[in-house]
């Protein structure tokens, strides 16, 4: 008698929990699908070839594109990745493999703190150390601001993925006569590379949408920015500028810019994963 | 005549087994404040199989790991006493070089997340032991043959090592260890995760390998020790209770503890 009651209870609890978790999943995914769908409908509508090839037109003139902003964003992210990823990754290696004692504790603590610093503060930092001395906005300054923003996540994600490599693999390498450094570079890092690269991708995706630190570092530019020493247009800043402007065709272009930015991030992700998928050794 | 670790080794002659490859003298081991090994003295004879048996936590694996200084990867581990390899103190040698000469296979197979070929080639590459691609291929094939794995994997050398079965993975790890031509191979419960057929294959392998290297095996299975080992050491609570030829240990042990353990009367 109590047995059937218990069974009934268990089944009910199971059903309720299953429903709640499924509902939350649908909700979480639903928000994402909604945003993507909205962006796609509005963004793709006014997207044409000119958007990728033409410069922005003056106010009142229709047409034009954001070629300079697309290239500008790519340049900014390139600098950011070159600054943030090597520093963050190597610091992560240090913390995961040699990080014991007070120094490592302080580094971890400071990294977490840095992660919590608002992005606009990173902008002020780059503004102070690059823009003010140079007395002009530049791609360098914007890239550096984004790069510094990437460091904390790069450190902690690399550290986590390196730590998750089983000790047995390290022992296997060391038992064959590898030094610790050699075992790290030939076994541990390759074993963790999928995770580390995923972290890098998420990191790039995160900073690619940052607007605040760019407002007073790379600023904006209605024309092509040559080299890295001039102010440059970038997609997030263009979205901001165009979205708050009082012109309907600018709003449309802002949607398109958002869509292109998303596609850019998605593209980088897909390429990276395709490259990774080759020559992969996954535990069964 | 057996000898115990607690007594000075010079007073009693060790069981005769030819030339000593490794000799440990009064070796003690500490994990922090815990003393895991108490004055172990023993000789491991060249081209023989030596087995360590004893209940869990008796120190047999710990002792095995000191033989190629793998204990140094554990923080707070400290060793006293000496271990000589061909008459030279291993604690005064360059550790990478020592580990190349004294290889190790672990309880759980631990192939690298690389192809089968790259797993075996790993030690050769990092130690710079081959001059060109052809030599590398030859050495890899030779090692896989020695580990009795070649016929099973020759068609899929470029596939992931994780696609192999548990027993094959363990033999791959043995092949990987053999590739660098170690003089001594330490096996830490190599069959504990394997089924009887895979175990039999590894035991056959051990038999063939002792021509070319000295083998030390830690095992939980007394039958396994009786099958493969020429000499057996019985460990209990961090002490080497008895060390003698396998026949003596199993048929006519000198110590009561040994007899209780090998006859299964151990509590």
Explain this structure to me?
The complex is a heterodimer of chains A (284) and B (267). Chain A is mainly α and 284 residues long. Chain A has a single domain, classed as MetI-like fold (Orthogonal Bundle), CATH 1.10.3720. Chain A is 77% helix and 0% strand. Chain B has a domain of 186 residues: Rossmann fold. The longest helix of chain B has 14 residues. At the A-B interface, helix 7 and helix 8 of A face helix 2, helix 3 and helix 6 of B.
What does this entry show, briefly?
The complex is a heterodimer of chains A (284) and B (267). Chain A has 284 residues and is mainly alpha-helical.
Write the layout of secondary structure elements.
The complex is a heterodimer of chains A (about 280) and B (about 270).
Chain A (H helix, E strand, L loop, with lengths): L1 H44 L3 H5 L13 H32 L2 H15 L3 H16 L4 H25 L3 H9 L4 H29 L3 H4 L19 H10 L3 H30 L7
Chain B lengths: L19 E12 L2 E12 L3 E5 L6 H7 L10 E9 L2 E2 L5 H7 E4 L10 H11 L6 H14 L3 H4 L12 H14 L4 E5 L7 H14 L4 E5 L3 H7 L2 E6 L2 E7 H6 L4 H7 L5
Parallel strand pairs in B: 3-8, 3-9, 6-7, 7-8
Antiparallel strand pairs in B: 1-2, 1-4, 4-5, 9-10
User: What's the number of domains of chain A?
Assistant: 1
- Structural class based on helices, strands and sheet pairing of chain B: alpha/beta
Could you name the CATH homologous superfamily of the domain at 9-108 and 177-262 in chain B? P-loop containing nucleotide triphosphate hydrolases
Shape of chain B: globular
Features:
heterodimer; A: 284 residues; mainly alpha; MetI-like fold; 11 helices; B: 267 residues; alpha/beta; Rossmann fold; 10 helices
């Amino acid at each position: 008698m109590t047995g059937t009651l218990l069974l009934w209870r268990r089944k009910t609890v199971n059903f309720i929990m299953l429903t709640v978790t499924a509902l939350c999943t649908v909700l979480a995914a639903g928000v994402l699908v909604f945003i993507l769908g909205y962006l796609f409908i509005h963004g793709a509508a006014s997207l044409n070839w000119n958007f990728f090839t033409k410069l922005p037109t003056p106010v009142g003139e229709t047409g034009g594109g954001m070629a300079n902003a697309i290239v500008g964003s790519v340049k900014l992210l390139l600098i950011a990745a070159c600054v943030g990823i090597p520093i963050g990754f190597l610091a992560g290696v240090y913390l995961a493999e040699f990080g014991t004692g007070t120094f490592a504790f302080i580094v971890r603590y400071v990294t977490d703190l840095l992660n919590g610093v608002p992005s606009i503060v990173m902008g002020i930092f780059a503004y102070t150390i690059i823009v003010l001395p140079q007395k002009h906005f530049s791609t360098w300054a914007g890239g550096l601001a984004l790069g510094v923003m990437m460091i904390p996540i790069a450190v902690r994600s690399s550290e986590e993925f390196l730590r998750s490599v089983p000790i047995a693999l390290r022992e296997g390498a060391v038992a064959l006569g590898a030094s610790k450094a050699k075992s790290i570079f030939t076994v541990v890092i390759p074993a963790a590379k999928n995770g580390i690269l995923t972290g890098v991708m998420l990191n790039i995706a995160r900073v690619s949408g940052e607007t605040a630190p760019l407002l007073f570092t790379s600023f904006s530019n209605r024309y092509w920015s040559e080299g890295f020493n001039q102010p440059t247009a970038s997609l997030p800043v263009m979205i901001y500028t165009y979205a708050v402007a009082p012109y309907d065709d600018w709003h449309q272009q802002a949607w398109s810019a958002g869509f292109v930015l998303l596609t850019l991030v998605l593209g980088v992700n897909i390429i990276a994963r395709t490259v990774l998928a080759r020559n992969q050794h996954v535990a069964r | 005549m057996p000898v115990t670790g607690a007594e000075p080794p010079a007073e009693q002659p060790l069981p005769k087994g030819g030339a000593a490859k490794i000799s440990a003298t009064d070796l003690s081991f500490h994990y922090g404040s815990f003393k895991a090994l108490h004055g172990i003295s023993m000789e491991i004879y060249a081209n023989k199989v030596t087995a360590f048996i004893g209940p869990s936590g008796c120190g047999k694996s710990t002792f095995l790991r000191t033989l190629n200084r793998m204990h140094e990867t554990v923080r707070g581990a400290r060793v006293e006493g000496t271990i000589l390899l061909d008459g030279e103190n291993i604690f005064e040698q360059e550790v990478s070089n020592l580990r190349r000469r004294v290889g190790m296979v672990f309880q759980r197979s631990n192939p690298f997340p690389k192809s089968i070929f790259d797993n075996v080639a790993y030690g050769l590459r990092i130690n710079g032991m081959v001059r060109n691609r052809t030599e590398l291929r030859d050495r890899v094939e030779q090692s896989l043959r020695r580990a009795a794995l070649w016929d099973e994997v020759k068609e899929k050398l470029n596939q992931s090592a994780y696609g192999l079965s548990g027993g094959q993975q363990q033999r791959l790890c043995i092949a990987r260890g053999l590739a660098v031509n170690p003089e001594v191979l330490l096996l830490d419960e190599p069959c504990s995760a394997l089924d009887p057929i895979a175990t039999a294959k590894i035991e056959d392998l051990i038999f063939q390998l002792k021509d070319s290297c000295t083998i030390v095996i830690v095992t939980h299975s007394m039958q396994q020790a009786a099958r493969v080992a020429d000499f057996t050491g019985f460990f209990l609570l961090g002490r080497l209770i008895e060390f003698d030829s396998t026949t003596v240990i199993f048929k006519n042990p000198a110590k009561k503890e040994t007899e209780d353990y090998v006859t299964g009367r151990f509590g």
